[in-house]
Write a sequence for this structure.
Protein backbone atom coordinates (compact mmCIF):
# COMPACT_ATOMS: atom_id res chain seq x y z
CA UNK A 1 0.00 0.00 0.00
CA UNK A 2 1.04 3.57 -0.59
CA UNK A 3 2.05 5.51 2.50
CA UNK A 4 3.80 8.60 1.15
CA UNK A 5 1.05 11.02 0.11
CA UNK A 6 1.19 13.67 2.82
CA UNK A 7 -0.42 17.07 2.50
CA UNK A 8 0.38 20.06 4.66
CA UNK A 9 -2.83 19.43 6.63
CA UNK A 10 -2.14 15.72 7.09
CA UNK A 11 1.28 16.51 8.55
CA UNK A 12 -0.54 18.57 11.21
CA UNK A 13 2.12 21.24 11.54
CA UNK A 14 3.81 19.75 14.56
CA UNK A 15 6.77 21.27 16.33
CA UNK A 16 8.56 18.50 18.15
CA UNK A 17 10.99 19.33 20.97
CA UNK A 18 13.19 16.36 21.78
CA UNK A 19 14.52 15.69 25.25
CA UNK A 20 17.62 14.46 23.52
CA UNK A 21 19.83 13.66 26.46
CA UNK A 22 17.20 11.23 27.77
CA UNK A 23 16.74 9.65 24.36
CA UNK A 24 20.51 9.52 23.80
CA UNK A 25 20.96 7.65 27.07
CA UNK A 26 18.25 5.17 26.08
CA UNK A 27 19.77 4.69 22.63
CA UNK A 28 23.31 4.21 23.94
CA UNK A 29 22.39 0.84 25.44
CA UNK A 30 20.57 -0.23 22.30
CA UNK A 31 23.03 0.60 19.52
CA UNK A 32 22.64 -2.86 17.99
CA UNK A 33 18.87 -2.71 17.62
CA UNK A 34 17.56 -3.52 14.13
CA UNK A 35 16.38 -0.53 12.16
CA UNK A 36 12.60 -0.15 12.06
CA UNK A 37 10.25 0.24 9.14
CA UNK A 38 7.78 3.10 9.27
CA UNK A 39 5.56 5.33 7.19
CA UNK A 40 6.73 8.80 6.18
CA UNK A 41 5.44 11.62 8.32
CA UNK A 42 4.51 9.22 11.13
CA UNK A 43 5.48 11.48 14.03
CA UNK A 44 3.02 10.62 16.78
CA UNK A 45 1.96 12.72 19.76
CA UNK A 46 4.13 11.77 22.71
CA UNK A 47 3.85 13.75 25.95
CA UNK A 48 7.35 12.67 26.88
CA UNK A 49 8.69 14.36 23.75
CA UNK A 50 6.69 17.53 24.24
CA UNK A 51 4.86 17.75 20.93
CA UNK A 52 3.28 21.15 20.33
CA UNK A 53 0.79 21.92 17.56
CA UNK A 54 1.35 24.94 15.34
CA UNK A 55 -1.55 26.76 13.75
CA UNK A 56 0.65 29.04 11.65
CA UNK A 57 -0.42 28.03 8.16
CA UNK A 58 1.60 30.85 6.63
CA UNK A 59 4.83 29.30 7.87
CA UNK A 60 5.38 27.77 4.47
CA UNK A 61 4.23 24.29 5.32
CA UNK A 62 6.94 23.64 7.88
CA UNK A 63 7.12 21.04 10.58
CA UNK A 64 10.14 21.46 12.82
CA UNK A 65 11.63 18.76 14.99
CA UNK A 66 13.93 20.86 17.17
CA UNK A 67 15.61 19.41 20.27
CA UNK A 68 16.28 21.34 23.44
CA UNK A 69 20.04 21.79 23.36
CA UNK A 70 21.93 24.24 25.53
CA UNK A 71 23.70 26.91 23.47
CA UNK A 72 27.43 26.27 23.30
CA UNK A 73 27.05 22.53 23.87
CA UNK A 74 30.17 20.68 22.76
CA UNK A 75 29.93 17.11 21.49
CA UNK A 76 31.42 14.23 23.41
CA UNK A 77 34.19 12.12 21.91
CA UNK A 78 31.82 9.40 20.78
CA UNK A 79 33.21 6.23 19.29
CA UNK A 80 31.33 4.17 16.77
CA UNK A 81 31.32 3.92 13.05
CA UNK A 82 29.64 3.30 9.80
CA UNK A 83 31.20 2.42 6.51
CA UNK A 84 34.74 3.37 7.43
CA UNK A 85 35.36 2.14 10.96
CA UNK A 86 35.49 3.97 14.28
CA UNK A 87 35.92 7.72 13.81
CA UNK A 88 35.44 10.30 16.55
CA UNK A 89 34.40 13.89 15.99
CA UNK A 90 37.89 15.33 16.53
CA UNK A 91 39.17 13.05 13.79
CA UNK A 92 36.55 14.52 11.46
CA UNK A 93 37.94 18.00 12.12
CA UNK A 94 41.37 16.81 10.99
CA UNK A 95 39.97 15.06 7.92
CA UNK A 96 38.02 18.13 6.85
CA UNK A 97 40.96 20.50 7.30
CA UNK A 98 43.24 18.23 5.25
CA UNK A 99 40.72 17.39 2.53
CA UNK A 100 41.83 17.60 -1.11
CA UNK A 101 38.40 18.47 -2.48
CA UNK A 102 39.65 21.71 -4.01
CA UNK A 103 41.38 19.73 -6.74
CA UNK A 104 37.91 19.52 -8.31
CA UNK A 105 35.57 21.72 -6.28
CA UNK A 106 35.37 25.48 -5.84
CA UNK A 107 34.92 27.38 -2.60
CA UNK A 108 31.34 28.28 -3.32
CA UNK A 109 30.27 31.87 -2.58
CA UNK A 110 28.08 32.89 0.33
CA UNK A 111 25.58 35.24 -1.31
CA UNK A 112 23.08 37.48 0.41
CA UNK A 113 19.39 37.12 -0.44
CA UNK A 114 18.09 40.70 -0.05
CA UNK A 115 14.50 40.07 -1.17
CA UNK A 116 14.01 37.05 1.07
CA UNK A 117 15.78 38.84 3.92
CA UNK A 118 13.46 41.81 3.66
CA UNK A 119 10.37 39.60 3.65
CA UNK A 120 11.45 37.56 6.68
CA UNK A 121 13.13 40.29 8.71
CA UNK A 122 16.35 38.28 9.04
CA UNK A 123 19.64 38.31 7.12
CA UNK A 124 19.48 35.29 4.81
CA UNK A 125 22.69 34.02 3.24
CA UNK A 126 22.81 31.35 0.53
CA UNK A 127 25.72 28.92 0.34
CA UNK A 128 25.85 28.41 -3.43
CA UNK A 129 26.76 24.74 -3.88
CA UNK A 130 24.63 24.84 -7.02
CA UNK A 131 27.59 26.64 -8.65
CA UNK A 132 29.96 23.66 -8.36
CA UNK A 133 31.32 22.18 -11.64
CA UNK A 134 28.65 19.44 -11.52
CA UNK A 135 26.02 21.85 -10.10
CA UNK A 136 25.94 19.99 -6.78
CA UNK A 137 27.95 19.52 -3.58
CA UNK A 138 28.21 15.78 -4.20
CA UNK A 139 31.62 15.89 -5.90
CA UNK A 140 33.18 16.97 -2.57
CA UNK A 141 32.44 13.68 -0.84
CA UNK A 142 33.22 11.52 -3.85
CA UNK A 143 36.62 13.12 -4.45
CA UNK A 144 37.46 13.20 -0.75
CA UNK A 145 37.17 9.42 -0.61
CA UNK A 146 38.66 8.65 -4.02
CA UNK A 147 41.70 10.89 -3.48
CA UNK A 148 42.72 8.64 -0.57
CA UNK A 149 42.70 5.45 -2.63
CA UNK A 150 46.04 3.80 -3.35
CA UNK A 151 47.48 3.57 -6.84
CA UNK A 152 46.61 -0.12 -6.90
CA UNK A 153 43.00 0.59 -5.94
CA UNK A 154 42.66 3.32 -8.55
CA UNK A 155 44.05 0.96 -11.18
CA UNK A 156 41.24 -1.51 -10.47
CA UNK A 157 38.67 1.27 -10.82
CA UNK A 158 35.67 2.46 -8.86
CA UNK A 159 31.94 1.88 -9.07
CA UNK A 160 28.87 3.55 -7.61
CA UNK A 161 25.10 3.41 -7.87
CA UNK A 162 23.23 6.66 -8.38
CA UNK A 163 20.50 8.23 -10.48
CA UNK A 164 21.75 11.78 -10.12
CA UNK A 165 24.31 14.07 -8.55
CA UNK A 166 26.51 11.46 -6.86
CA UNK A 167 27.03 9.80 -10.24
CA UNK A 168 28.37 13.03 -11.71
CA UNK A 169 30.61 13.59 -8.70
CA UNK A 170 32.18 10.14 -9.01
CA UNK A 171 32.56 10.48 -12.79
CA UNK A 172 34.32 13.85 -12.55
CA UNK A 173 36.54 12.64 -9.70
CA UNK A 174 37.55 9.57 -11.71
CA UNK A 175 38.37 11.78 -14.68
CA UNK A 176 40.60 13.95 -12.49
CA UNK A 177 42.35 10.97 -10.88
CA UNK A 178 42.71 9.05 -14.15
CA UNK A 179 40.86 5.93 -13.06
CA UNK A 180 38.09 3.92 -14.65
CA UNK A 181 34.60 4.47 -13.24
CA UNK A 182 31.47 2.37 -13.69
CA UNK A 183 28.23 4.13 -12.81
CA UNK A 184 25.20 1.90 -12.27
CA UNK A 185 21.94 3.79 -12.81
CA UNK A 186 18.31 2.58 -12.71
CA UNK A 187 16.71 1.88 -16.08
CA UNK A 188 14.23 4.69 -15.35
CA UNK A 189 17.01 7.32 -15.31
CA UNK A 190 16.24 10.10 -17.84
CA UNK A 191 18.50 10.03 -20.89
CA UNK A 192 19.81 13.55 -20.23
CA UNK A 193 21.20 12.41 -16.86
CA UNK A 194 22.98 9.25 -17.90
CA UNK A 195 24.38 10.86 -21.05
CA UNK A 196 25.83 13.68 -18.93
CA UNK A 197 27.67 11.08 -16.84
CA UNK A 198 28.81 9.24 -19.95
CA UNK A 199 30.27 12.43 -21.42
CA UNK A 200 32.55 12.66 -18.38
CA UNK A 201 34.21 9.43 -19.46
CA UNK A 202 32.49 7.00 -17.12
CA UNK A 203 30.94 3.70 -18.19
CA UNK A 204 27.19 3.86 -17.57
CA UNK A 205 25.24 0.66 -16.92
CA UNK A 206 21.45 0.98 -16.83
CA UNK A 207 20.26 -1.80 -14.56
CA UNK A 208 17.47 -2.38 -12.05
CA UNK A 209 13.91 -1.16 -11.79
CA UNK A 210 14.61 0.44 -8.40
CA UNK A 211 17.58 2.03 -6.68
CA UNK A 212 17.92 -0.99 -4.36
CA UNK A 213 18.32 -3.31 -7.35
CA UNK A 214 20.85 -0.94 -8.91
CA UNK A 215 22.88 -0.73 -5.72
CA UNK A 216 22.89 -4.53 -5.33
CA UNK A 217 24.30 -4.85 -8.84
CA UNK A 218 27.01 -2.26 -8.16
CA UNK A 219 28.14 -3.88 -4.91
CA UNK A 220 28.20 -7.35 -6.46
CA UNK A 221 30.24 -6.13 -9.44
CA UNK A 222 32.62 -4.36 -7.05
CA UNK A 223 33.31 -7.70 -5.35
CA UNK A 224 33.72 -9.57 -8.62
CA UNK A 225 36.09 -7.05 -10.24
CA UNK A 226 37.89 -5.75 -7.17
CA UNK A 227 36.56 -2.24 -7.68
CA UNK A 228 36.08 0.19 -4.81
CA UNK A 229 32.43 1.00 -4.18
CA UNK A 230 31.96 4.74 -3.56
CA UNK A 231 28.90 5.25 -1.31
CA UNK A 232 26.90 8.46 -1.61
CA UNK A 233 26.95 9.33 2.10
CA UNK A 234 27.75 6.50 4.53
CA UNK A 235 31.56 6.70 4.79
CA UNK A 236 33.81 8.92 6.96
CA UNK A 237 35.81 10.22 4.01
CA UNK A 238 32.65 11.10 2.09
CA UNK A 239 31.26 12.85 5.17
CA UNK A 240 34.52 14.75 5.65
CA UNK A 241 34.43 15.94 2.05
CA UNK A 242 30.91 17.27 2.50
CA UNK A 243 32.05 18.84 5.78
CA UNK A 244 34.27 21.28 3.89
CA UNK A 245 31.04 23.20 3.19
CA UNK A 246 30.80 23.91 6.92
CA UNK A 247 34.44 24.94 7.07
CA UNK A 248 33.85 27.49 4.32
CA UNK A 249 30.73 28.90 5.98
CA UNK A 250 32.63 29.49 9.23
CA UNK A 251 35.41 31.25 7.32
CA UNK A 252 33.03 33.31 5.19
CA UNK A 253 30.71 34.24 8.09
CA UNK A 254 32.88 35.51 10.95
CA UNK A 255 30.08 37.46 12.67
CA UNK A 256 27.10 36.20 14.69
CA UNK A 257 25.22 33.34 13.03
CA UNK A 258 22.00 31.89 14.40
CA UNK A 259 21.66 28.72 12.29
CA UNK A 260 22.75 26.80 9.21
CA UNK A 261 19.96 25.01 7.33
CA UNK A 262 21.02 21.87 5.48
CA UNK A 263 19.07 19.61 3.09
CA UNK A 264 18.99 16.02 4.34
CA UNK A 265 18.84 12.83 2.32
CA UNK A 266 21.18 10.13 3.55
CA UNK A 267 22.71 12.57 6.01
CA UNK A 268 26.29 12.90 4.76
CA UNK A 269 26.19 16.66 4.17
CA UNK A 270 24.62 17.62 7.49
CA UNK A 271 26.81 15.17 9.42
CA UNK A 272 29.97 16.63 7.90
CA UNK A 273 28.88 20.23 8.46
CA UNK A 274 27.88 19.53 12.07
CA UNK A 275 31.14 17.68 12.77
CA UNK A 276 33.08 20.84 11.88
CA UNK A 277 30.77 23.64 13.00
CA UNK A 278 30.03 22.17 16.43
CA UNK A 279 33.79 21.99 17.09
CA UNK A 280 34.68 25.57 16.18
CA UNK A 281 31.36 27.45 16.53
CA UNK A 282 29.26 25.35 18.96
CA UNK A 283 26.74 28.17 19.48
CA UNK A 284 25.61 27.96 15.84
CA UNK A 285 22.58 25.75 15.33
CA UNK A 286 22.79 23.10 12.61
CA UNK A 287 19.28 22.27 11.41
CA UNK A 288 18.32 19.73 8.77
CA UNK A 289 15.46 20.10 6.30
CA UNK A 290 13.47 17.22 4.78
CA UNK A 291 10.27 16.91 2.73
CA UNK A 292 7.18 15.72 4.60
CA UNK A 293 7.14 12.49 2.60
CA UNK A 294 10.88 11.73 2.82
CA UNK A 295 11.55 12.30 6.51
CA UNK A 296 13.82 9.38 7.41
CA UNK A 297 16.20 11.51 9.50
CA UNK A 298 13.46 13.24 11.50
CA UNK A 299 11.85 9.89 12.32
CA UNK A 300 15.20 8.29 13.14
CA UNK A 301 16.18 11.09 15.52
CA UNK A 302 12.75 11.03 17.11
CA UNK A 303 12.85 7.28 17.77
CA UNK A 304 16.54 7.13 18.63
CA UNK A 305 17.30 4.55 15.95
CA UNK A 306 17.45 4.39 12.17
CA UNK A 307 14.04 4.09 10.54
CA UNK A 308 13.35 2.59 7.11
CA UNK A 309 10.48 4.26 5.26
CA UNK A 310 8.06 1.98 3.45
CA UNK A 311 7.64 4.54 0.68
CA UNK A 312 9.41 7.78 -0.20
CA UNK A 313 8.06 10.80 -2.04
CA UNK A 314 10.07 11.44 -5.18
CA UNK A 315 9.51 15.13 -5.89
CA UNK A 316 12.78 16.17 -4.22
CA UNK A 317 14.57 13.19 -5.74
CA UNK A 318 18.00 14.35 -4.55
CA UNK A 319 17.00 13.54 -0.95
CA UNK A 320 14.57 10.68 -1.59
CA UNK A 321 16.10 7.92 0.55
CA UNK A 322 14.35 5.24 2.57
CA UNK A 323 16.98 5.16 5.33
CA UNK A 324 19.77 7.47 6.45
CA UNK A 325 23.31 6.21 6.69
CA UNK A 326 24.60 4.51 9.84
CA UNK A 327 27.57 6.84 10.34
CA UNK A 328 25.67 10.05 9.46
CA UNK A 329 22.96 9.06 11.94
CA UNK A 330 25.51 8.43 14.68
CA UNK A 331 26.90 11.93 14.19
CA UNK A 332 23.54 13.63 13.74
CA UNK A 333 21.95 12.29 16.92
CA UNK A 334 24.91 13.75 18.84
CA UNK A 335 25.45 17.02 16.97
CA UNK A 336 22.42 18.17 15.00
CA UNK A 337 20.00 20.64 16.60
CA UNK A 338 16.86 19.57 14.77
CA UNK A 339 15.01 18.89 11.54
CA UNK A 340 12.41 20.99 9.75
CA UNK A 341 9.90 19.29 7.44
CA UNK A 342 8.44 21.21 4.51
CA UNK A 343 5.78 20.61 1.87
CA UNK A 344 6.18 20.23 -1.87
CA UNK A 345 4.44 23.58 -2.33
CA UNK A 346 6.94 25.30 -0.02
CA UNK A 347 9.85 23.82 -1.99
CA UNK A 348 8.37 25.16 -5.23
CA UNK A 349 7.94 28.59 -3.62
CA UNK A 350 11.62 28.59 -2.67
CA UNK A 351 12.64 27.66 -6.21
CA UNK A 352 10.72 30.74 -7.32
CA UNK A 353 12.39 32.82 -4.57
CA UNK A 354 15.82 31.81 -5.89
CA UNK A 355 14.83 32.72 -9.43
CA UNK A 356 13.60 36.12 -8.30
CA UNK A 357 16.78 36.73 -6.28
CA UNK A 358 19.33 36.04 -9.02
CA UNK A 359 17.64 34.29 -11.97
CA UNK A 360 19.05 30.90 -10.98
CA UNK A 361 16.94 27.73 -11.00
CA UNK A 362 17.46 25.15 -8.28
CA UNK A 363 16.38 21.52 -8.30
CA UNK A 364 13.80 20.67 -5.60
CA UNK A 365 16.39 19.24 -3.20
CA UNK A 366 18.56 22.29 -3.85
CA UNK A 367 15.80 24.63 -2.61
CA UNK A 368 14.94 22.50 0.41
CA UNK A 369 17.10 24.43 2.90
CA UNK A 370 15.63 27.77 1.81
CA UNK A 371 12.12 26.45 2.46
CA UNK A 372 13.16 25.13 5.86
CA UNK A 373 14.85 28.39 6.85
CA UNK A 374 11.70 30.34 6.00
CA UNK A 375 9.41 27.96 7.91
CA UNK A 376 11.69 28.07 10.96
CA UNK A 377 12.06 31.87 10.99
CA UNK A 378 8.32 32.42 10.63
CA UNK A 379 7.36 29.89 13.26
CA UNK A 380 9.75 31.22 15.89
CA UNK A 381 9.27 34.86 14.89
CA UNK A 382 13.01 35.23 14.37
CA UNK A 383 14.08 38.82 13.62
CA UNK A 384 17.42 40.51 13.02
CA UNK A 385 19.47 37.29 13.09
CA UNK A 386 21.68 35.83 10.37
CA UNK A 387 20.91 32.41 8.90
CA UNK A 388 22.55 30.38 6.15
CA UNK A 389 20.67 28.07 3.76
CA UNK A 390 22.65 25.68 1.57
CA UNK A 391 21.46 25.66 -2.03
CA UNK A 392 22.75 22.18 -2.67
CA UNK A 393 22.06 21.57 -6.35
CA UNK A 394 20.74 22.86 -9.66
CA UNK A 395 20.28 19.69 -11.72
CA UNK A 396 16.65 20.42 -12.48
CA UNK A 397 14.65 18.36 -14.96
CA UNK A 398 13.25 20.88 -17.43
CA UNK A 399 9.96 18.95 -17.58
CA UNK A 400 9.38 19.76 -13.91
CA UNK A 401 9.32 23.52 -14.33
CA UNK A 402 5.63 23.55 -15.24
CA UNK A 403 4.67 21.84 -12.00
CA UNK A 404 6.96 24.12 -10.00
CA UNK A 405 5.38 27.19 -11.56
CA UNK A 406 1.90 25.84 -10.82
CA UNK A 407 2.59 25.21 -7.13
CA UNK A 408 4.96 28.07 -6.27
CA UNK A 409 2.31 30.67 -5.44
CA UNK A 410 0.35 28.11 -3.43
CA UNK A 411 3.50 27.41 -1.45
CA UNK A 412 3.98 31.11 -0.83
CA UNK A 413 0.36 31.39 0.31
CA UNK A 414 -0.31 33.97 -2.38
CA UNK A 415 -2.71 31.79 -4.40
CA UNK A 416 -5.70 29.72 -3.33
CA UNK A 417 -7.73 27.02 -5.10
CA UNK A 418 -11.46 27.38 -4.39
CA UNK A 419 -14.66 25.60 -5.39
CA UNK A 420 -18.06 27.33 -5.24
CA UNK A 421 -21.56 26.01 -5.90
CA UNK A 422 -23.97 28.38 -7.66
CA UNK A 423 -27.57 27.81 -8.81
CA UNK A 424 -27.52 26.56 -12.41
CA UNK A 425 -29.54 29.39 -13.96
CA UNK A 426 -29.03 31.47 -17.06
CA UNK A 427 -26.78 34.45 -16.26
CA UNK A 428 -25.60 33.22 -12.85
CA UNK A 429 -22.04 32.69 -14.03
CA UNK A 430 -21.73 36.38 -14.97
CA UNK A 431 -23.20 37.36 -11.60
CA UNK A 432 -20.67 35.14 -9.87
CA UNK A 433 -17.82 36.66 -11.85
CA UNK A 434 -18.88 40.15 -10.81
CA UNK A 435 -18.95 39.02 -7.19
CA UNK A 436 -15.31 37.88 -7.29
CA UNK A 437 -14.25 40.59 -9.74
CA UNK A 438 -12.25 42.67 -7.20
CA UNK A 439 -9.97 39.65 -6.62
CA UNK A 440 -7.29 38.69 -9.14
CA UNK A 441 -8.49 35.43 -10.75
CA UNK A 442 -5.69 33.27 -12.16
CA UNK A 443 -7.80 30.32 -13.37
CA UNK A 444 -11.49 29.59 -13.99
CA UNK A 445 -13.20 26.23 -14.76
CA UNK A 446 -16.94 26.05 -15.43
CA UNK A 447 -19.24 23.95 -17.61
CA UNK A 448 -22.99 24.60 -17.99
CA UNK A 449 -25.30 21.62 -17.38
CA UNK A 450 -29.03 22.24 -17.90
CA UNK A 451 -29.90 18.98 -16.10
CA UNK A 452 -28.43 20.02 -12.74
CA UNK A 453 -29.71 22.48 -10.18
CA UNK A 454 -26.25 23.36 -8.85
CA UNK A 455 -23.22 24.30 -10.92
CA UNK A 456 -19.67 23.85 -9.65
CA UNK A 457 -17.10 26.55 -10.40
CA UNK A 458 -13.46 25.67 -9.74
CA UNK A 459 -11.12 28.65 -9.72
CA UNK A 460 -7.83 30.02 -8.41
CA UNK A 461 -7.26 33.49 -6.99
CA UNK A 462 -4.08 35.35 -6.08
CA UNK A 463 -3.84 37.60 -3.07
CA UNK A 464 -1.28 39.66 -1.16
CA UNK A 465 -2.56 39.00 2.36
CA UNK A 466 -4.70 36.32 3.97
CA UNK A 467 -7.20 39.06 4.83
CA UNK A 468 -8.03 39.39 1.12
CA UNK A 469 -8.81 35.68 0.89
CA UNK A 470 -10.88 35.80 4.07
CA UNK A 471 -12.81 38.76 2.68
CA UNK A 472 -13.62 36.82 -0.50
CA UNK A 473 -14.83 33.85 1.53
CA UNK A 474 -17.01 36.20 3.60
CA UNK A 475 -18.54 37.55 0.36
CA UNK A 476 -19.40 34.01 -0.70
CA UNK A 477 -20.94 33.24 2.66
CA UNK A 478 -23.05 36.41 2.64
CA UNK A 479 -24.30 35.50 -0.85
CA UNK A 480 -25.24 31.99 0.37
CA UNK A 481 -22.76 30.39 -2.02
CA UNK A 482 -21.19 27.27 -0.52
CA UNK A 483 -17.41 27.56 -1.03
CA UNK A 484 -14.59 25.16 -0.20
CA UNK A 485 -10.90 26.03 0.08
CA UNK A 486 -9.03 23.20 -1.69
CA UNK A 487 -5.58 24.78 -1.57
CA UNK A 488 -4.13 22.09 0.69
CA UNK A 489 -5.65 19.15 -1.18
CA UNK A 490 -2.96 17.36 -3.20
CA UNK A 491 -5.58 15.18 -4.90
CA UNK A 492 -7.13 18.31 -6.40
CA UNK A 493 -3.81 19.96 -7.32
CA UNK A 494 -2.30 16.85 -8.89
CA UNK A 495 -5.32 15.39 -10.66
CA UNK A 496 -8.90 16.48 -10.18
CA UNK A 497 -8.55 20.05 -11.43
CA UNK A 498 -7.34 18.71 -14.79
CA UNK A 499 -10.11 16.17 -15.40
CA UNK A 500 -12.61 16.65 -18.20
CA UNK A 501 -16.13 15.33 -18.60
CA UNK A 502 -17.64 16.69 -15.41
CA UNK A 503 -19.38 14.83 -12.62
CA UNK A 504 -21.14 11.53 -13.12
CA UNK A 505 -23.07 9.00 -11.05
CA UNK A 506 -21.33 5.66 -11.50
CA UNK A 507 -22.29 2.57 -9.57
CA UNK A 508 -19.57 0.72 -7.62
CA UNK A 509 -16.87 3.25 -8.52
CA UNK A 510 -13.60 3.23 -6.61
CA UNK A 511 -10.80 5.74 -7.13
CA UNK A 512 -7.12 4.89 -6.63
CA UNK A 513 -3.75 6.56 -7.03
CA UNK A 514 -0.86 4.47 -8.34
CA UNK A 515 2.85 5.25 -8.51
CA UNK A 516 4.98 3.16 -10.84
CA UNK A 517 8.35 3.66 -12.58
CA UNK A 518 8.25 6.10 -15.50
CA UNK A 519 9.58 4.00 -18.38
CA UNK A 520 8.51 3.16 -21.94
CA UNK A 521 5.56 0.76 -22.05
CA UNK A 522 4.78 0.94 -18.31
CA UNK A 523 1.51 2.81 -18.77
CA UNK A 524 0.27 0.42 -21.46
CA UNK A 525 1.12 -2.60 -19.33
CA UNK A 526 -0.76 -1.06 -16.42
CA UNK A 527 -3.89 -0.43 -18.51
CA UNK A 528 -3.83 -3.88 -20.12
CA UNK A 529 -3.68 -5.56 -16.73
CA UNK A 530 -6.82 -3.93 -15.34
CA UNK A 531 -8.98 -3.24 -18.39
CA UNK A 532 -9.62 -6.95 -18.98
CA UNK A 533 -11.64 -7.34 -15.77
CA UNK A 534 -12.94 -3.89 -14.84
CA UNK A 535 -14.31 -0.86 -16.60
CA UNK A 536 -12.07 2.20 -16.28
CA UNK A 537 -14.29 5.16 -15.37
CA UNK A 538 -11.72 7.88 -14.78
CA UNK A 539 -8.10 8.37 -15.73
CA UNK A 540 -5.56 11.12 -15.26
CA UNK A 541 -1.82 10.90 -15.86
CA UNK A 542 0.54 13.85 -16.02
CA UNK A 543 4.27 13.75 -16.66
CA UNK A 544 5.86 15.65 -13.77
CA UNK A 545 9.45 15.25 -14.89
CA UNK A 546 10.36 12.60 -12.33
CA UNK A 547 11.32 8.94 -12.37
CA UNK A 548 7.85 7.83 -11.22
CA UNK A 549 4.41 8.19 -12.78
CA UNK A 550 1.55 9.39 -10.58
CA UNK A 551 -1.76 8.13 -11.96
CA UNK A 552 -5.33 8.60 -10.73
CA UNK A 553 -7.72 5.87 -11.92
CA UNK A 554 -11.39 5.09 -11.37
CA UNK A 555 -12.75 1.54 -11.73
CA UNK A 556 -16.15 -0.10 -11.51
CA UNK A 557 -15.53 -2.85 -8.97
CA UNK A 558 -18.35 -4.74 -7.27
CA UNK A 559 -17.98 -5.39 -3.56
CA UNK A 560 -17.69 -9.12 -4.27
CA UNK A 561 -14.66 -8.44 -6.52
CA UNK A 562 -12.65 -6.23 -4.15
CA UNK A 563 -10.38 -9.03 -2.93
CA UNK A 564 -9.56 -9.97 -6.52
CA UNK A 565 -8.89 -6.31 -7.37
CA UNK A 566 -6.54 -5.84 -4.41
CA UNK A 567 -4.68 -9.03 -5.26
CA UNK A 568 -4.09 -7.82 -8.81
CA UNK A 569 -3.04 -4.36 -7.61
CA UNK A 570 -0.57 -5.91 -5.17
CA UNK A 571 0.90 -8.03 -7.95
CA UNK A 572 2.11 -4.86 -9.66
CA UNK A 573 4.60 -4.38 -6.82
CA UNK A 574 4.12 -0.64 -6.94
CA UNK A 575 2.72 1.81 -4.42
CA UNK A 576 -0.99 2.58 -4.50
CA UNK A 577 -3.75 3.88 -2.25
CA UNK A 578 -7.52 4.10 -2.29
CA UNK A 579 -8.76 7.68 -2.29
CA UNK A 580 -11.23 8.11 0.55
CA UNK A 581 -11.68 11.89 0.68
CA UNK A 582 -15.39 11.47 -0.01
CA UNK A 583 -16.18 15.18 0.23
CA UNK A 584 -13.76 16.10 -2.55
CA UNK A 585 -14.65 13.09 -4.68
CA UNK A 586 -18.35 13.84 -4.38
CA UNK A 587 -17.68 17.48 -5.11
CA UNK A 588 -15.73 17.04 -8.32
CA UNK A 589 -16.69 13.61 -9.66
CA UNK A 590 -20.22 12.72 -8.61
Amino acid sequence: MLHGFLSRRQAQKLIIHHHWRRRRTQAAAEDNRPIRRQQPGDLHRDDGAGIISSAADESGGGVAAVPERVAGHRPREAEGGGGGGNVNEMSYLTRILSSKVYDVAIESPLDSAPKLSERLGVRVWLKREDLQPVFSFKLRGAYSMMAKLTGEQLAKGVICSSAGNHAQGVALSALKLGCNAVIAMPVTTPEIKWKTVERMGATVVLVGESYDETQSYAKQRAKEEGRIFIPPFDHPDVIAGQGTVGMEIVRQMPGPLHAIFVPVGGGGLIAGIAAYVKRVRPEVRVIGVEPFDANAMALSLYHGQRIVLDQVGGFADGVAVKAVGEEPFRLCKELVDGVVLVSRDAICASIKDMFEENRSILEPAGALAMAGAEAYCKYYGLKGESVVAITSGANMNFDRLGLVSQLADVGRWSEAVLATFVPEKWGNFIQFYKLVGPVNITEFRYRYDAHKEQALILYSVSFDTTMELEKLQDWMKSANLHTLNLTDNDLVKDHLQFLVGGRSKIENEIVCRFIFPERPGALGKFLDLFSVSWNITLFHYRDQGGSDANVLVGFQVAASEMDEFKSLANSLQCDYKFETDTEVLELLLH
Observations:
- DSSP finds 21 helices and 25 strands in the chain.
- The radius of gyration is 25 Å.
